[in-house]
Write a structure and sequence with these properties.
Layout lengths: L3 H15 L4 E6 L10 H8 L4 E7 L2 E6 L3 E6 L4 E6 L11 E7 L4 E6 L5 E6 L3 H8 L12 H9 L6 H6 L9 H10 L13 H20 L40 E5 L2 E5 L6
Antiparallel strand pairs: 1-6, 2-3, 3-4, 4-8, 5-7, 6-7, 9-10
Helix pairs in contact: 1-7, 6-7
Length: about 280
């Protein structure tokens, strides 16, 4: 599933490509991708609008329209947003479910192989209510997310295991399985450690690792560990920098021990048994 760096990458690229463009037409090939309104209402409200802004909250992409509505897109496991300067039939897939046509001839394809993702049409004024309903935690790259804030929210979850907690969207917004594993490895913390047993230095290290890894992953356009590609259809470059995710049985890049894999809170989790304590 695309995580914070991947969705942030898509947001940044779409800001460059489609902000201030007019949506002339929407082709809906799979109506059930639209979750909260009918396909007819979706087209009526979206067609003819101009894209004002594009934002990210947690793993959600928000495209603000000029008519007081916003598109809220969750890519889930296999969602893709592909921008083309002009429609090329060869770029259409059997899993291209929505096509947005812009006034300059460019298009945006919404692909989703497994159809777990969605788009919702929400009044822009109601977005904060939606975020409150989802109970999203703080953004790990936001100005308000200081080390002291991190310590404060950790103190409220003393019995939680570290890695599943990092993935809890009500605790911290946008971090998923890939970057939670990477942060634990970076901080030399076992994913199964309980929060109350972390030292102050370990908490400091985890905070720094989260920040550094997420920022670096955004610079590299994310990690293509599954079907993720950016809006140009290119894979993210951060995969080559992953230290532990997907490396079961390989040597730890820090100490040389064999990387192990366990299932933790229902998710595969790789770690080094020697240098993560």
């Amino acid at each position: 599933m695309p995580e914070l760096p991947e969705v942030e990458t898509i947001k940044n690229q779409l800001l460059e490509k489609i902000q201030r463009k007019k949506i002339e037409r929407v082709e809906i090939r799979l109506p059930r991708m639209i979750k909260n309104v009918s396909a007819k209402k979706f087209q009526k409200k979206v067609e003819g609008t101009i894209i004002k802004d594009i934002r990210r909250r947690a793993k959600l992409l928000i495209i603000e329209l000029s008519n007081g509505y916003s598109l809220v897109i969750h890519l889930k496991l296999t969602g893709q947003l592909i921008y083309l300067e002009k429609l090329e039939q060869s770029r259409l897939k059997t899993f291209t479910h929505l096509i947005y046509y812009f006034n300059n001839g460019s298009v945006l394809l919404h692909n989703d192989l497994r159809q777990f993702g969605y788009v919702k049409l929400i009044p822009t004024k109601d977005l904060e209510k939606l975020f409150e309903k989802e109970k999203f935690g703080p953004e790990p790259l936001g100005k308000e997310f200081t080390l002291e804030r991190f310590k404060e929210i950790l103190s409220k979850k003393p019995r939680q295991k570290v890695k599943p907690l990092l993935m809890d969207q009500t605790f911290l917004a946008g971090v998923g399985n890939v970057y939670a594993q990477e942060a634990c490895w970076c901080a030399k913390i076992l994913p199964t450690r309980v929060v109350k047993n972390l030292s102050e230095q370990e908490i400091n290290n985890l905070y720094r690792c989260l920040f550094d890894i997420l920022r670096e992953a955004i610079k590299d356009k994310g990690s293509s560990v599954d079907t993720y590609v950016d809006v140009h259809g290119r894979q993210g470059n951060y995969v080559s920098k992953l230290k532990v995710y997907g490396r079961e049985g390989e040597n730890c890049l820090r100490c040389g021990a064999k990387i192990r894999k366990i299932t933790l809170a229902g998710r595969g989790t790789c770690y080094c048994p020697h240098c993560q304590k």
